[in-house]
Amino acid sequence: MFTGIQLGGVNFVIEEVKLVYNVGKQVLKYQGYRIPTKADLLEAKEFILKMEKSASVSNMVQAAKNIPKNSWKRGALISAELAGLFVIGEQLGRGNLIGYKD
């Protein structure tokens, strides 16, 4: 079974995972994060269900009407840029401009 790259008799992958785990523990402790309790999960579930009930097409249309024109233009420009990057990535991945190489 492959368990990683052996460097000087030390399993490199396992050592890196241990490092990330320990650093992550310290960051979470420093930031004051904790594992969510059952009460936290129930509160989140109730919030989502409440949002789902209050969501309606008319509310979404009204919210869309309140967005300034500059934000729409910026969003359209960013969307076009992302679509272009996706197309370029697809062409590079296929190794061909149109279709796939045989």
From TrEMBL:
The lineage of its organism: Eukaryota, Fungi, Fungi incertae sedis, Zoopagomycota, Kickxellomycotina. GO terms for biological process: proton motive force-driven ATP synthesis. It comes from Zancudomyces culisetae (Gut fungus). The keyword Ion transport applies. GO terms for molecular function: proton transmembrane transporter activity. It holds the Pfam family ATP-synt_G. Its main location: mitochondrion. Belongs to the ATPase g subunit family. One of its GO terms (cellular component) is proton-transporting ATP synthase complex. It comes from the Eukaryota. This is ATP synthase subunit g, mitochondrial. Keywords: ATP synthesis, CF(0), Hydrogen ion transport, Ion transport, Membrane, Mitochondrion, Transport. It is found in: Mitochondrion membrane. The keyword Transcription regulation does not apply.
